[in-house]
Write a structure and sequence with these properties.
Nuclear Transport Factor 2, Chain: A; alpha+beta; globular
């Protein structure tokens, strides 16, 4: 059984990495825009929220949204670690399905060499990617900024937060991200404590909690 959950901006920034083996350590490189984006993309695929944050420039106005998304990423990483330790590598892929952002960053890593760069001065560059030949990504672009001689991904560019409607929608989704983070953490703690003797038990518990969070947020939105 695979659980597919769309969590608004999690589809854009944070997604649950589904490598069936623990990811190899990433060596951060911010020397060039493409190197910086490669570091960020690898962090997304590896579900390394700390490195994702380190690889981004976050506008203060965007911080609550990005913090909520990364909190969901961190808790999902904890759950993945717990499941791997209890049930083995293959169980990780059974618990969760790939997130859109993970798939997109995996595709961009393959297309990094052919991405085109548009300069906007010495400290701002936009990288544009073509569609993936296999259809796994429909291209797109991202802006990187030079900060203290290091290139970082602009978080607002990834989330399209320059669009007021998008920013407002994602801000409304913060409680959803928070609820998802709590659900992941609760199931991870139960797995660690031996409360789930089988993978299916953990799956069922996660589904129940995720469904409750989604229903709660839907109800709250309806009452507004």
């Amino acid at each position: 059984m695979r659980i597919r959950v769309c969590i608004g901006a999690v589809l854009l920034v944070a997604s649950v990495a589904l490598a069936q083996t623990a990811p190899a350590p990433i060596k951060p490189d911010y020397s060039t825009p493409k190197a910086a984006l490669k570091t960020y993309a690898q962090a997304v695929v590896a579900q390394d929220a700390a490195l994702q944050r380190q690889s981004m420039v976050i506008d203060p106005a965007d911080k609550p949204i990005v913090d909520a998304v990364l909190a969901a990423t961190e808790s999902a990483a904890r759950l993945q670690k717990s499941v791997r330790a209890k049930f083995g590598d293959a169980a990780v892929a059974e618990l969760r399905s790939p997130g859109a952002m993970e798939l997109k960053m995996a595709a961009w890593l393959k297309l990094l060499e052919v991405a085109t760069a548009e300069n906007s001065g010495d400290s701002k560059i936009t990288l544009t990617f073509p569609d993936s030949p296999d259809g796994s990504s429909h291209g797109g672009s991202v802006t990187l900024l030079a900060v203290d001689k290091q290139w970082k991904v602009a978080a607002g560019s990834l989330l399209n937060l320059s669009d007021p409607a998008t920013a407002a929608k994602l801000k409304q989704g913060i409680p959803l991200f928070t609820g998802m983070a709590a659900a992941y953490n609760e199931v991870a703690a139960d797995v660690d404590a031996g409360k789930h003797p089988t993978l299916k038990s953990a799956q069922d518990s996660l589904m129940e909690k995720v469904t409750a969070v989604a229903r709660s947020q839907k109800s709250a939105a309806t009452q507004k």
